[in-house]
Amino acid sequence: MLSGAADPARASQAMDSLDAHLVRREQGLVQLLAPPFDQSDLNPGYIKGYVPGVRENGGQYTHAAIWAAMAFAKLGDSGRAWELLGLINPVHHGQSAAAVATYQAEPYVVAADVYAVAPHTGRAGWSWYTGSAGWLYRLMLESLLGLRREGEWLYLEPCLPPDWPGYRLDYRHGDSLYRIQVLQTGPGAAPPIRQLRVDGVDCAEPGLRLIDDRREHQVELRLGAPPTGPA
To answer: Which of 85, 94, 101, 157 is the most exposed place for a label (fewest CB within 10 A)?
Structure first.
């Protein structure tokens, strides 16, 4: 994960390197490392006990693949953040008979790992038994749609595809309902223009304070999309 104190230039270079060496688009997976530890004197520990290309030994370890997508979102690179979500999303492994035969796991749950070495490239490992599902939920809700809760404050920091007009989302806080609408215009300058309104009133704070008053509240965020990142 990228910290707020990371050097943006160095972080961007690191993610470019990850993209070049670990993202395998044709196979629909994101490797943890490459090559596997099978023909080297280096001993990284227990992961060398796995067959090459399985789990941490050169396969897709889905936790880390999700963190990579989160890192792209943190850099504002919506193109690659959403692309990696598409590679990780198990639904996309069930779109054809050939894909199902390759993946060999349920396309409606997240697999802990995906194999990356022939003849099993693209086959899912453990399913149902993984914390990756929780991280995938956070990737979609927090890193991409941009909802972030801190105490009694809710922040909206979306990282959306430039061609999205926006989205709607209902957020319940106790007995109160916050109906959130994000509206995005075309690509503009960086940083993007943003205007937050709560119940028709401009909000001077970067987020909104949640109040459990058993009422329904209207939240609108207008923003200009940033320039398109690498596809």
So the answer is: 101
Distance between CA 167 and CA 181 in Å, rounded?
6
| Lookup: tokens for 7 | 């050097």
* CATH number of domain containing 203: 2.60.420.10
Looking at per-residue pLDDT, the higher value among 7 and 136 belongs to: 136
Report helix, strand or coil for 135: helix
d(CA 52, CA 60): 11
72 domain residue, yes or no: yes
Q: Say if residues 227 and 187 touch (Cβ distance below 8 Å).
A: yes
Whether 216 maps to a domain, the answer reads: yes
Query: From the centroid of its chain, how far is CA 58?
Result: 21
Tell me how crowded residue 43 is: count the other CB atoms within 10 A of its CB: 9
Identify whether the C-beta of residue 214 lies closer than 8 Å to the C-beta of residue 175. Answer: yes
* 187 and 121 share one domain: no
175 and 122 both lie in a single domain: no
CA–CA distances in Å: residue 207 to residues 53, 73, 212: 44, 19, 16
Q: Which domain holds residue 120?
A: 8-130
CB-based contact 52:117 (threshold 8 Å)? yes
Do residues 114 and 46 share a domain? yes
Give the tens place of pLDDT for each residue, 143-169.
999 999 999 999 999 999 988 999 999
For 97-111, the pLDDT digits (tens) are 999 999 999 999 999
Residue 138 included in any domain: no
Burial letters 175-203, b for 16+ CB under 10 A, else e? eeebebebebeeeeeeebeeebebeeeeb
